[in-house]
Amino acid sequence: MRDAKLPIDDRGLAYGDGLFETVLVRDGQPLLWDYHMARLDEGVERLSLPRPDFTAFDALPAQCGPGLQVLKLMLTRGSGGRGYRPPEPGELRWRWTASPFQPSPERWFEGVAVRCCELRLGIQPRLAGIKHLARLENVLARQEWQDDSIAEGLLCDSHGDLVEATTMNLIWLRRGRLETPLLDRSGVRGTLLSALDDAVELHWVREDLDTLLEADAAWLLNSVQGVWPIRRLDDACGNPLKQWPPAVDCAIQRIAHRRLGYPLNPGD
Amino acid sequence: MRDAKLPIDDRGLAYGDGLFETVLVRDGQPLLWDYHMARLDEGVERLSLPRPDFTAFDALPAQCGPGLQVLKLMLTRGSGGRGYRPPEPGELRWRWTASPFQPSPERWFEGVAVRCCELRLGIQPRLAGIKHLARLENVLARQEWQDDSIAEGLLCDSHGDLVEATTMNLIWLRRGRLETPLLDRSGVRGTLLSALDDAVELHWVREDLDTLLEADAAWLLNSVQGVWPIRRLDDACGNPLKQWPPAVDCAIQRIAHRRLGYPLNPGD
């Protein structure tokens, strides 16, 4: 439903008891739609939410309006239950919004500066990978810097292993292999990451920050922004840790941008 | 504000970016009010929320209606910001509701059966202790049992150390000492627990489940339900782990119930 308000006893608000997806839509056509619906489906299973009628969501992209839009779809367990205990039978509640979107071409082609966050993500295999509404760790991490020249913050888990950035996934090239952090204990499995995993040989690894410092190139990516090469990495105090030369091998970006309809070269 | 609806772009809904308190109110008089306001204050600091006018909250209990009520007060970071990044300056949004409440005298005086949850709480010192809105772990834990004869589920963290129950804190008696789990890495510091900590000598410990099995008595407690002695503890499969005799020493309950205006004996 497109409705600007929600009852305050909604369990999404009360406990973060729900899921969301943010989908890039171009002229009414959603990008990576099947991947978004698959992740939503997995989230519904993992949280034991009442099953939505997924076909009802198929009609939303066409209603987003012209040009580049971000469709945000939110599912919650609705109202009711006794405290944390879900109501039986539950009723799913869903809402959506669309907002015009402008990507950042300079980040695609000049790369970005990122920093490490001090916050460590908690280990929670039951919630890892899915895009649930309880994202307060990400909010705290994003509060760690105000400097607009820093595009993103990298997050490790409480064991010190690399996970993701606050809103993006992370891939690096090391010894000729494309590696990305396992997302089985924390983090969100991005839909663009899943699409790339189906297109190229990605190695899922459990590694700490030192591994990233050995990488020959590194990228941040999500289904809305596309792929940003990392140009510089700072520590949590803002001191430079590593610089990468621009554009070592952007096959990853070319594959991703073809999927998203984004340009492959600065002039496109 | 007493308003039944909230804008769907509220950050409480989007990310769990907010706090709540559930306060026992008897005939318009709040119980443990200073402890609730102190925890809220700490939460505001920890999340760097815009500071509310705390004096405005003082008028709420009187508006809850007669008899025993639970006042639920919710604070969120309002709308806006760019994704996880909070808006600057932010504007706090708050809502409240009151619901009639009936406690469970049989749980006070006959004790309760509880089970261990399989879910392990993530370690997150930045969020530990405060009552934030991102409580999806508690919802998942509460889904682990449907049997109404089980009153609560005990939670350990990802290191295997005891933390709390899904909605209550935990105190046990061991070798003549009252012990309770440290809440510096996960869990919520209950207001009744804080009040007891000011009244008796509580030892804050980092211990696993085996320690609880050595205890001579154990209790669950919160500011709404009061104190429930644990009569039986089952494992996560429902097999009995331990039974305790009824009413070893209920000084803890007497002190707590005096604070809450609850009876000290079955006949009261």
Low-pLDDT runs of 5+ residues of chain A are none
Q: In one word, what is the shape of chain A?
A: globular
CATH homologous superfamily caption of the largest domain in chain A:
D-amino Acid Aminotransferase, subunit A, domain 2
Q: How many separate domains make up the residues of chain A?
A: 2
Total of DSSP H or I helical runs spanning 4+ residues of chain A? 8
Largest interface: A-B, 51 and 51 residues
Q: Major beta sheet of chain A, specifics? A: 9 strands, mixed
The quaternary structure here is homodimer
Catalytic activity (chains A, B): 4-amino-4-deoxychorismate = 4-aminobenzoate + pyruvate + H(+)
GO biological process, one term (chains A, B): 4-aminobenzoate biosynthetic process
EC number (chains A, B): 4.1.3.38
GO molecular function, one term (chains A, B): 4-amino-4-deoxychorismate lyase activity
